[in-house]
Amino acid sequence: MFILPALLYLKVLPLFGQRLYHFIVRNKSRPPHDGGAALSQLVLTRPCTLLGLAGPMRMPNACCVTNCRGNYDAENKVAVFSFPKVEELKLKWIQAIPRRDLVVTKNTKVCEKHFTDDDIERVSTFYKESTGETLIAKLKKPRLKKGATPKIFPHCPSYLSSTKVARDGPEDVHIVPVSHIVAEDLFTLIKKIILALEEIGFKGMGIVTDNNSINRKAVSNFNNPPQFQAQYQHPADEKRPLFCLIDSVHLIKCVRNNWINQKNGYFMYYPQFEGEENAVQTASFSILRKLYDIESSELLKFGIGLTRKALWPTNLERQNVSLALKIFSSNLVKGLLELGEKHNLMHYGGTANFLNIFCTWWDIANVKTVTWGNHLD
Ligand SMILES: *[C@@H]1O[C@H](CO)[C@@H](O)[C@H](O)[C@H]1NC(C)=O
Ligand SMILES: *[C@@H]1O[C@H](CO)[C@@H](O)[C@H](O)[C@H]1NC(C)=O
Ligand SMILES: *[C@@H]1O[C@H](CO)[C@@H](O)[C@H](O)[C@H]1NC(C)=O
């Protein structure tokens, strides 16, 4: 039995707790590389589970940590903290919080339950010169000490705390077993699902698909006349883009290759997505090689998982995705943040940030079908 790869992922904006929903089209007995030819005409459409998906609206100031009820209701009133502005510290928070789909905006908060008492200041002391007394006043709002990071995550599933398997599972918004389907029908279905999701408050960002010809053809219908593009006008809002990515595995290798191919000392320049507009950040591949040298000469290893092959891949090795993933790895991000300053690695913050963006992207874009390998009842 074979399964068609997942076809549509809709990324949902942070307002709703940024989760990933996807739509799978598959044919139980489709041979692996049969193209789209065997698929035509919809056989069955399972009742859409769409409406069950929106979940409760998030309270403002709700804590972003998985399973934390901080500020969700009146009984759980807690103080919350925004993410730090300093990029390096902010990344440390992101790394610490066991949640894979975390996207931080200025409204993303972490509540006091995740900090140790040592990290939180609840009172302020004043020295009153006139009387020589030291006064202690309770702060209206507790504040964090310098450099504090969240450390306590009592209700997170343990798989999220481990660095290995870590991702909130995707959810099906729609499952459509088909025996035959034509691109136009598939397009109509994709569009319907995107519109339905938008209607209940989600924001569809894009579609991730493999390079199957029927998928490509279906997606190209978002343009009139049909034409395959990386970006379309969003069917729910003409001012927004709807992105289409083909083959996330291929893309992540391309990003790595382009980076290595930079002739300017392996610097990749990229826009800073938050904060200052028009600011440019730099990611340096050469400091990854330096980091590798540092690691291999030190007795106590940080475990960043870099290998020679990952850093100097041959043309053949550039095809190997697990080598690319040794570069886009959260261990490496941690390693950079820990060792960057100590070893004076130029652009380590920008590089860690760049890697982190693609780690997050990979977690989102590379979701396989939840029921991969299972049969539909
Ligand atoms: C899946 O595709 C095959 C052709 O590859 C076709 O013979 C079969 O009927 C399809 N299965 C279903 C469940 O539609
Ligand atoms: C997808 O397949 C088409 C036709 O086989 C090919 O021209 C195109 O380059 C492929 N695109 C990607 C991103 O692999
Ligand atoms: C890809 O690289 C990994 C890590 O070096 C290795 O274990 C694996 O065998 C390689 N895969 C192929 C197909 O060469």
From TrEMBL:
Identify the residues that the record assigns to the THAP-type domain, covering every copy: 59-153
A single Gene Ontology CC term: nucleoplasm
Q: Which UniProt keywords apply?
A: Cell cycle, Coiled coil, DNA-binding, Metal-binding, Nucleus, Signal, Transcription, Transcription regulation, Zinc, Zinc-finger
Q: From which domain of life does this come?
A: Eukaryota
Location comes to: Nucleus, Nucleoplasm
Signal peptide as annotated in the record: 1-17
**PROSITE patterns referenced in this protein's UniProt entry, alphabetically:** ZF_THAP (PS50950)
Any one GO MF term held by the record is: zinc ion binding
**Which family is this sequence assigned to?**
Belongs to the THAP1 family.
The protein here is known as THAP-type domain-containing protein
